[in-house]
Amino acid sequence: xxxxxxxxxxxxxxxxxxxxxxxxxxxxxxxxxxxxxxxxxxxxxxxxxxxxxxxxxxxxxxxxxxxxxxxxxxxxxxxxxxxxxxxxxxxxxxxxxxxxxxxxxxxxxxxxxxxxxxxxxxxxxxxxxxxxxxxxxxxxxxxxxxxxxxxxxxxxxxxxxxxxxxxxxxxxxxxxxxxxxxxxxxxxxxxxxxxxxxxxxxxxxxxxxxxxxxxxxxxxxxxxxxxxxxxxxxxxxxxxxxxxxxxxxxxxxxxxxxxxxxxxxxxxxxxxxxxxxxxxxxxxxxxxxx
Length: 290
What we know:
The chain has seven helices and eleven strands.
C-alpha cells in the first residue's frame, strides 16, 4: 500500500481521514502509524500492513477463527484442495466457479470520472481467488484490488502467493469485517468467501459490506449451508457438522440483509455451500434539475 492509497481508507472509529507518520520503502508504507485527523486515534503499521481494528472488539468466534488461521496458515490451501472432494464430492475449482459469475467482472467498464475501479475481498485469506479474478477482468481496465483479513498469518500467505505467482498488486490490510476502514460507496465490487458464518455479528458485517459498496454493484457472500433440497446420509451430515464446528446454525443469512437490499439471489452452489448476491439501492437524495 502506498501513500496515495491513504485517500481510500478511513479511521474505523470515526471514518475520518488518516495521516501517515513513519518510514516508506520504495513509496510504500513500511513501519509507522496512521493517525486519525479527527479523533487522533493511532493505528500501527508493521511490515507494510496497516492494523485497522481494535483488539478489544475481536471476540467470540472471531477470536477463535483467527487463532486457527494464524496457527496453520500454510496448510489452509492444501487442506482445502484435498478435503473438498472428500467431503463434498466436488472440487475446489468447481466450488469457486460456482460463485465467480455473480461478481459480474466481465461487465466492468471504465469509470466516467477516470478513477480506477476498486474491488474489495473481505477475508481475503491466502488469496486463492486472485487468479480467478484476474482471469475475468477485461484487459486494459484500470482496477485496484483490495484485500482485508483479521489473520496476519493468512495475509502473509497471500503476500507469498502474489510474489510467487506474479499477481498484480493487491492493497492488503488487517481489519475487522464489523468495522470496515473504508468510506461509504468506495468499491465497485465487494465479496466475502467462506467467513461470514463465523462472525460474531453477521448482520453488522453484511451492513458494512453494503455500506462500502457503490449503489447497484453486486455484493457476493459465500459460506456453508447444507443443501436443503436433497437428502443427506449420516456420514454427510457428520462431515458438515465437522466443517461448521464454529456454529450450530450454518445457513444462508438472507434474513440479515439491510432493508435497502435489492435483487437478492440465494443459490446453493454445492452440497455444502450457498452463494448470496444482493445490491444496494441508491438512497441518496436526487438533485433537482431546471
